[in-house]
Design brief:
S-adenosyl-L-methionine-dependent methyltransferase. The protein is of the alpha/beta class and 297 residues long. It is built from eleven helices and twelve strands. Bound molecules: S-adenosylmethionine. S-adenosylmethionine (SAM) binds next to loops.
């Protein structure tokens, strides 16, 4: 399926990676299972990236992950990411998973940041109750201060998804949809399964996790210098926040190992063309849906 559309969310992701969003440019989008082909120069650059950040620095980054994200929000307050109004359009599940029209949905925005995904959802769909969490205390505070924050419709709490039990704030088997949007990439690959296991406990059987994140060979991955490489497909930015770039196979294996079933798992390839500068920026995202199976009867 080929679509032509501009996604606001992708331009804020571009900013996070130091890629200047260009509003004069055109872009197109393609979805599918084929990963992006590298040019010979790009393949050579990646093949030469053999030096890894020292173990000492890697351990420090892991220890300070929460602090680094909190400092990110201290520097940027709520102004960094744009609201993600695409979510309901992209993930029709949010509407489609209702068994009847005015059924109330319970969602969990895992790694909600300052609410750029959460608040548009609450505004666009009045029949949603949302749990939202993030490990940055500042981000959580910004969500609480948002004029749209209403405790009748929303509960935000601080939680490190790799170690704090979601069951302390969310009842077991109670959530209809979990959104995991550009969050797993920020987590060490060896701890990603802990996040998925945590989420599994609160998801209703038969319901889904909606995932969107960086895909393998995204332009942001190719811009990293070798001094910023942590491990295969895993890099650190200047501000200490980290980013993993997912292949569809890696993600599928990760979800399946925790007990989910795959529904959709495809690359979204976007080529943004800046005609003035003659530049083409290939963005790659992975958009997927994984289901917690119904209990055996
Ligand atoms: C790129 S932001 C995405 C925010 C939001 N989902 C959105 O779409 O706007 C990534 C978020 O993940 C959060 N995060 C990273 N690691 C986390 C962890 N272990 N537990 C909870 N949140 C985490 C960060 O604090 C940050 O707010």
């Amino acid at each position: 399926m080929t679509e032509f559309m501009l996604l606001q969310s992708d331009s804020s992701v571009a900013q996070l990676d130091g890629i200047k969003p260009n509003h004069e440019s055109g872009s197109f989008q393609k979805r599918g299972h084929k990963m992006r082909m590298l040019s010979p120069e790009e393949a050579e650059k990646l093949a030469k990236d053999l030096v890894l950040v020292s173990d000492f620095k890697q351990q420090k980054l892991e220890k300070e992950a929460q602090r680094n994200w909190d400092l990110f929000y201290k520097r940027n307050s709520t102004n960094f990411f744009k609201d993600r109004h695409w979510t309901t359009r992209e993930f029709e599940e949010l509407r489609a998973c209702r068994e009847f029209e005015d059924q109330k949905l319970t969602i969990l925005e895992a790694g909600c940041g300052v609410g750029n995904c959460l608040f548009p959802l609450l505004e666009e769909d009045l029949n949603i109750f949302a749990y939202a969490c993030d490990f940055s205390p500042r981000a959580v505070e910004y969500v609480k201060q948002n004029p749209l924050y209403d405790t009748q419709r929303c509960k935000v709490f601080q939680c490190d998804l790799t170690k704090d039990d979601l069951l302390e704030n969310v009842p077991p088997d109670s959530v209809d949809v979990v959104t995991l949007i550009f969050v797993l990439s920020a987590i060490h690959p060896e701890k990603m399964h802990l996040v998925l296991r945590n989420i599994y406990k609160v998801l209703k059987p038969g319901k889904c996790v909606l995932f969107r994140d960086y895909g393998l060979y995204d332009h942001a991955m190719l811009r990293f210098k070798s001094a910023n490489k942590l491990s295969e497909n895993f890099y650190v930015r200047q501000d200490g926040t980290r980013s993993y770039f997912f292949s569809d196979d890696f993600l599928a294996e990760l979800f399946l190992s925790v007990g989910y079933e795959q529904v959709v798992n495809e690359y979204v390839l976007r080529e943004t063309v800046n005609k003035k500068e003659g530049l083409s920026v290939p963005r790659v995202f992975l958009q997927s849906k994984f289901l917690k199976p119904q209990r055996e009867t």
